[in-house]
Structures are given as structure tokens and as C-alpha cells.
Amino acid sequence: MFIETVPNRDSPPAVLLRESYRDENGRTQKRTLANLSKLPDDVVAMLKAILKGGTLIGPGSDELQIERSLPHGHVAAALGMIRQIALDRLILSTANDAASRRYCDLVLAMMVDRLIAPRSKLGFVRAVDEATAVTSLGAVLGLGKVKDCEAYEALDWLLERQVRIESGLARRHLKDGVLVLYDVSSSYFEGRHCPLAQYGHSRDHRGDRPQIVYGLLCTREGLPIAIEVFDGNRADPTTLKSQIDKVKSRFGIKRVVLVGDRGMITAARIRDDLKVSSLDWITCLRAPQIQALAREDGPLQLSLFDERDLAEITSPDFPGERLIVCRNRELAKERARKREALLVATERELARVQVQVRRKGSSLRTAAEIGLAGRRSRQCQEDGQALCARHPRWTLQLGPQGRSDHCRGQTRWHLCRAHQRAGRGSLDRACSSGLQGSLARRAGLPFDEDY
User: Fold this and answer.
1) What is the pLDDT of residues 46-101, one digit of tens each?
2) Among residues 160, 191, 213, which one ends one of the domains?
3) Kind of pairing, strands 256-259 and 280-282?
4) What is the distance between the alpha carbons of residues 213 and 201, in angstroms, rounded to a whole number?
5) Are 401 and 368 found together in one domain?
6) Quick one: 212 and 153 in the same domain?
7) What is the DSSP letter of 416?
8) Residue from 194, 233, 193 nearest 213 by CA
9) Pick from 354, 180, 205: which is nearest to 264 by CA?
10) SS3 175
11) Which run of H or E residues covers position 375?
């Protein structure tokens, strides 16, 4: 028997229960046993399954019982990637006893849990425990009952194998002439018993908390090779020497190119660490060094960028070093647009001040009074910068006035220097009464950002 659906023109199709047989001449025929058109679709589907040999499980049946459903897809993806890169075998390569296998499974579980849902160690223990599990991670690794102390014991076990694991990663990904990236970050610390936690420059803007500093060494593709934790008050450049020793001695790399920002690879580090170790490096120059190269007789001139945006120059101040200069045309366009907007706004406000000066009976007579009138402009307050007093488009010569005008009880205002920012002016009174006026009144004329 079988169920067949027969189209019925504009009406709903007919659902018929039929069977096949052979007539007297041996030809195959079929006949209808029942019309199932009025039955619900799910009942028809169940009948089809039964006719194909399936087993019907009713609502009161004990053959199927759902106990628990745990998310598994993200666990399988993260754990599968760890096993694909053989990180689990690298961690467990020197010891294969029962305790080491247990700690290795806990370490893998903490790595996966950190990827899918970062939480504290106590939260991790609750997330993988068989009674309070939130994913299939504990069941897949067979962790069973997990205690709080086991997570910390696993981390201590891992710390003892850090050197061997880092050496294994270096053999996989580093070779002579490789490019190595290194940078330092920090994290504030809430506890009280960490010997490395010290007060220092907080990148988390939490100067009220002690912190630890850690440096990460990785390949040009971003693959982490080694990590080291330092005291919280350790300066970034001073961590560089230990990384050089690690790469040269432990990893056995003879030629390395170290890349870092100008806060990390300083002139002192180049002189005392990199050149002594015969290492190559890539870093940036500081602003005073760039200004010295861009002087009139210097090697850095704008004519280098007439046909290309990238050029190589040399300088006697940097013997044996290659200097690569680059021009960002998009940034130059943005700066030019902003500069022109500042010029237009400043000229508009200066024209208004000129009208006030020429007006009969105007109280604007001295350079300081004229400067104050221009400084009160709302547009100039919004721009926050002012043109340099020596700029060719500066129509009013408002030079700074000395503080030699001391009169009895008379208040004298003095124009602040042209490079000061809005709200940071030094409009002093000549008498001892101190600063006068609100921040809004002490705004500065916008100055040329290239000055």
C-alpha cells in the first residue's frame, strides 16, 4: 500500500490510500482503498512514514525521552580549530600521565571558553560542570565534576611548560630573516597579593588601580609566539631587551627584523640593545627629527612627491639607515580643506572687527582691545584654532603686549600668544585680582595648524 496525491484542477488535490495488484493478463494495476483528503497533513505524513516501515512513537511512549539540550556548534568550531593546528599535542607533548591529561583538557576548555564567552575562572567552572553546564564543552572533553582549585592548578601546570610551548611555536613559525612584531599593553588589577601589580601609566584610564604590563611577540600574520608579564610600573622600552635575548638565545634566530612604534624603539634602545645585538628594526621618527630633515637644505623636500608618494632618502644624522618617506594625499586634501575653512572663518571675523574699529566713537583703540574683540567670536571658539600672527592673510597686526602697564586701580587686558588653544588663554589683569572672565570669554582666534 502507498499514499498518492492526485491533482484535482482548481480544487485541493485528492489524497488516496492505494495498493498495487496484477490483473488476469499480468499487467500492474492499482485500486483505491480509502480517501484521506480530509485528514490533516501531519497525520498523512505519519501514515506515509508507517507505510515505509517507520515506527510510530506516541505522546505517552517511553522509548524517546529528552533530558537536556546544550549548544554545541561554536564549541565544535573552536575545539576543532585547536586540534587542527595541533596546539593540544604541543601542550601535552612532554607528559602523558593521567594528571597531565586532566590539566591539558582543562587548559583546552579554558581556551575554548575564553573564545566563545569570556568570563572569570569561577564562571568557567560553573559553565563546564556537568550539573550547571551551559554548553557541550565539558561533555565533549569529558571533564565531569570540576573544582575551583583545579582551574588554577591547571594554569600553574601550564606556566611550567611555557618555555617549551613558546619554543615549539617558534620552530613552526619563525626562521632567519623573519619579520617579528612586538607591542606592550597593560591591564589594571583588582587583587592585593600579586607581586607584579604596581601603579603606572594605565592604558585603561584606571590610575586608581595597580596594573600589570605584558608584552606580546608575534609573526607578521599576527600569530602569537611568546608573551611575558612585567611589573606594572615598567616602561615599555625597557621590556625590549628581554625579547631580543629570547629571540636570539632561546629561539636561535640569527637575523630578525623587529617592528615597533617610536614609543617602543627609542634612540636609546637602538643604541644600547639593537645595534649591539646586530638586529634590524623598523620604527618611526619623532617630530623634531622630521622637522630637521625637512629644513631648507635637508633631504626631505616636497619635490620628492611630484611623481610618486613613496621615496627613500638618506641623511648623515642616521648613518647606515634607510629612511622611507610617504605622502598621504587623502590626508593632505583634508588638511587643505580644513585650512581653507579656517581662513574663511577668520577673515570674516577680522572684517567684522575692522568695521568696529573704523566706526566713529569706537572703544577699540589699542591692539589689546582689538584682539579681545576678535577673540570673543563664537565661530573662532568653535574652530578652536587661530591663524598665526605672521600669516600673510593676517590683516590686523595684533602683537603680544608686555605687562609693563601698571596703573593705580586700572585694569589692563593682555593678548595671549597666538598659538594657544581656545579656553587656554592667559588673559591676565595687571593688578593682583587674578584671572577675569569665563572660559567662553577667553577663547582664542583660530590659528594655522601648520604653523
Assistant:
1) 888 888 877 766 655 566 666 778 899 999 999 999 999 999 888 887 667 888 89
2) 160
3) parallel
4) 10
5) yes
6) no
7) P
8) 233
9) 180
10) coil
11) helix 367-375
